[in-house]
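Figure S4 source data
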Amino acid sequence: MKANIEAEKTDHDDRYEFQVTVREGRGETHHRVTLQKADYERLTGGKASPEAPVNEINWANALREMVTKPVRLSGHARVQLTRRGVSEDEVIEVIRTSSWQPAELGRLECRKNFLYGREWNGKFYETKQVRPIFVEEAEEIVVVTVYSYYF
């Protein structure tokens, strides 16, 4: 089945930012892709529109690279995992599968609800929500802290 890829471009002084939606079958993922204008010029010579992908394979490769960028937890984030009842695998899943949003101090955040169905701190909860706060660096995604909510 062929994926449907939609990209909305926002033009900034030194970069383009795209909100990309990938739909395939009944699934849908959302991604934020940043393209430095200098890289755009170097790669295309200015001959292609930045909002029109040359082909879907190029977009798929770019998205795959972004989604598979290594995730590293800071020391503080690792401490928060235990305190907040979250696993490292859950944090990585949230980052890989959820839509990213701007957070305070130039950071990013995303969130995902997990079926929980058990006790936490003496009270029964059906759902656990995991919300990592992170920065996207050139070679990796660094998780600064992790929040969890039970309901």
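Figure S5 source data
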Amino acid sequence: MPGQITARQREVYDTIVRFHRQKGFMPTFRDLMALLGIKSPNGLMWHMEALLKKGWIEWPSVKGGRGTEGRVSGGFRPLRTLRLLVHERTAPTLDLVEGGIRVTLPDGPLTLDEARKLAADLLLACESVENTQR
């Protein structure tokens, strides 16, 4: 179970997630610094190390490398090696497709509220499909 993080650390994490979803690759230190308004690489590094220690990210070191980005004792940590370990849970969704309904469920069990909403939405979707088939 990941540890508790501060609001600012959550902002850093959410910015990484959002960037990765939009672009398909991890941001650079400069990207993150610009998006978060952080002036110093050390300021960003402090938050990254906290996310690493608290289990929100996995960030392996590689030997060698150039520049100061992600340098820690024992190796160099480019952000391209970053793995996000805590992901936001997606809500179940219903889509009307030709000939039926597609249901997309999140990983893991549904909460009671999610199950109730899904059941209500499914009833409405079934009625809609039946009405279009008449």
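The helical segments are 7-23, 29-36, 41-53, 112-133. The chain has two domains: 7-84, 93-133.
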